[in-house]
Each structure stands twice: as C-alpha cells, then as structure tokens.
Amino acid sequence: MYSHNMVGSNDIEASKKFYDATFQAIGGKPAIVDDKGRLIYMHKGGLFLVGAPIDGEPASIGNGCTIGFAMENPEQANAWHDAGIAAGGTSIEDPPGVREGGFGQLYLAYLRDPSGNKLCALHRVV
C-alpha cells in the first residue's frame, strides 16, 4: 500500500544536510534534486521526498504524525539517530532503546528534523 512519503521544509539546504546524513548512515545515497528543488531519496524500494509546500504557505509539522524508517538492527538505528543529531536534528522521546508494547519488543530511536517533522527508526527485536 505504501508508495512514498513527503514532508515540507522551510529550509531545503538544512533538510538536505539532515536527510543526506541520516540516509547515508543506513546505506542510502544523497538526495536527487529535481527541477522544482525537491529532494528525492530512494532506498530499498521506498521513496521519500522533501520540498516546499506547493501552495506557497510555510511548511508545518503534522501534530500526531510520525514517519517510521525500518532498520536492520539496533546499531543501524543508533547510527541513523547519531547522524541526524550531528546534522541538525533533535533527539526526542526516550533515548534510543527497546520498548515493550502490543507489537512485542521494538528498538526505537526518535528525532525531529530541522523543520520539526517527527521521525522514528524502528527495528523489530526477534
């Protein structure tokens, strides 16, 4: 069902620095920039885009919205988290680690990107 996700940004250069770092930390490549200035990331069959809102209004975060990225292991989640902080992101929620819940054990790490979008690195612990 999932095809892609796009978040808004009011500072494309700060977003590029942040997302290039987090995707490269998990084996991805830097953004492709299209003719409209949008950042396009392709990794493991997923498509993630960053751009200024097309309606000309400022970008804003979705209250209650979290975008999750699948991680291969806790070490990859930590590398993603560390790269995000170093590239201008903010660590939020509890520190990276295992949480118990209705879906079993999950290793989770949360960040906000430079525009305030909430992101999560998730590894299902077996």
TrEMBL record:
<dbReference type="GO" id="GO:0016829">
    <property type="term" value="F:lyase activity"/>
</dbReference>
<dbReference type="InterPro" id="IPR004360">
    <property type="entry name" value="Glyas_Fos-R_dOase_dom"/>
</dbReference>
<dbReference type="InterPro" id="IPR037523">
    <property type="entry name" value="VOC_core"/>
</dbReference>
<protein>
    <submittedName>
        <fullName>Putative enzyme related to lactoylglutathione lyase</fullName>
    </submittedName>
</protein>
<dbReference type="InterPro" id="IPR029068">
    <property type="entry name" value="Glyas_Bleomycin-R_OHBP_Dase"/>
</dbReference>
<keyword id="KW-0456">Lyase</keyword>
<dbReference type="Pfam" id="PF00903">
    <property type="entry name" value="Glyoxalase"/>
</dbReference>
<feature type="domain" description="VOC">
    <location>
        <begin position="1"/>
        <end position="124"/>
    </location>
</feature>
